[in-house]
Amino acid sequence: MKHFFVWTASLLASLSLVLVLSKCNKSQSYNKFLDPELIKIAQFTDQRLTDSLVPYLKVAQPLVRLEAAYALASVRDPKSVDALHITLIDPVAEVRAASAYALGQILHPSSIEPLSLQLRYESNTASVINLLEAIGKIGGGLYASNSAPEFVENAANAIFNYERSDSIGVHALAKAAFWMHNGGWKDTRFVNKLSALYPLQSTINRRMIAFSIGRYRGDWYLDTLQANNFIERLNTETDTLACIAAIPSVGRTNSRAAANLLSRILTSSSSGHEQLIAACRAAAKHTGVDAQPILELLKHTHYAVVEEACLSLQNKSLSLFQLEEVRVLQAALPVSLKATLARMLHRQGDTLIVETWLKQISAVNDPYDRLACIRVLGVNGRSAFVTLERAINHPDILQSNAYTEAFIEAHGQLDFPEEINYSKSLVQLIQRGDIGITALCAAEMRSAFPSAIIDKTTPALPSNELVEMNQTLLYALDKLQLPKEVETANEIIKTLNAWAISPREEILVGYNNPIDWNLVKSIPRRQRAAISTSKGVIEIELHVEEAPGSVASFVKLCREGFYNGKSFHRVVPNFVIQGGCPRGDGMGGTDYTLRSEFRLHDYRTGSVGLASSGPDTESCQWFITHIPTPHLEGRYTIFAHVVKGMAVVDRIRIGDTIERIDLLDK
After folding, report:
1. Range of 6's domain?
2. What is the domain-level CATH number for residue 585?
3. Does residue 595 fall inside a structural domain?
4. Number of domains in the chain
5. pTM of the model
6. Structure confidence by residue, pLDDT tens digits, 120-145
């Protein structure tokens, strides 16, 4: 009888929540922030006021408890875990699911036991999935940080021993295992179990299993019976996304079965561009896949496929006949792809003539093609003279950054000139005063001189050079504008800390940009925006109710024309396109930063997220995903989704333009 009353209370509470939500959402012209109490919760979230948020977990209204749980998922403060443990048994299933999600964001080891306990009694689908996923996130996160190993084992056991074997149970297992694998967990129990379950599952479950197995980094792939059985099942896979998710694991399986599958995908006329891109990447790592099927893709009509084929060929040995074929095909390709192939041909034995490429750089009109040509100079160590000089003196800051990258790469070549003092050159580059160059050189100092002092008496460098580098970094750090240039600041601090000479705490960006609530309240809950690009129009739907601060900033910048004429500076096929940088290289931003805003949903195809360099460092740059990217969930704010124009997203290349962004009327 007691269970009946608990079930009835849960049902009534859920109905109450539905009624509240329906009242808030009865018109697309309004959003939930007409409710002043929800604004208050969002303000506390934005200011990271945990103590002000926790009491909301106990109020009578289910919607308020729900919002408080999600708020704490964004704040991620360990001080809230005890209160969230209590709401794991909330009478409303949605609140329980949100509480589990929040605990998965906080990653506190004490949460594994209450999450595992609640799993025994939970029957709600969303709650089951989020409980097990939260355990996986915590276990994987702890393993990645090399902390609390006994809790990691507890998390793994809780996941593996969960006995629900229906579709929901399998999906929850796959998600939990995904996060364990994402953190580096190498126990084979999960991959063995998931690969055995794979063939009988629904499409959505096969996708999640494939993503989970694809994130595994242990020895399971090395020509084992289980791995080959999984590959055999992929031969009959009809779902494109499941296939794409599984292909990375195929590339790590050192077997003839894996090589045959990759070769079949590469040569099949029915393979879509996403499958071909994934297969190229996997084939680049697999010694059993010949170069010829990849070489044939240089003739493909999709730019991203050709680009990936160019990159993949760098890891293959080509015959003299194949090299000549590449040279012939290279002549007809766009400049940026010519540069990629030049890098590959250099690895195969061709000499990259610096003077020839300097002429090519001068002849190119497109600024991003020019950057690609500059970067290829780095394969020749003797280019260091000209790349260093131009990195220091070139008036165009993007070209100066590209020359810096080429100079740093040239240092790794055998023919790097002995007469160039590398540490002094990096100091000179930092003294130019550009945040992009400074970040590059700070990271390179940490890499090239990982231990500036071997012990207290034996410096790894002459003491005067060590002092000069250290002082240069400190001076550069002092000149940075915060919070705008926090990415460069923390890159410097990482190097200072690695050397342990002048250690500093990494900078956590504080609250600096209050949300404009009048603007937020004016944005319809399903507001759409049209991103007009040089390749066509992409229409997105903004999620103001889930990410009010992010959406308000985006809308404000759109109305100001901020994005007009900006470029897509980063494109990674089968991953994202990224734009909105005022500099054009990913290092630019606004004078303010935004708070990370997290909510329970999947990073599916067409997710629009804000770029960041760490928690609460979001600004004006945004990206759109080509395919599902579950590893980004809970790390990057999703503030919109594409509703029209994914074909345009797939056509975007580096250097394509954001002509304007218009907010659409209903």
Report:
1. 1-164
2. 2.40.100.10
3. yes
4. 2
5. 0.93
6. 999 999 999 999 999 999 999 999 99
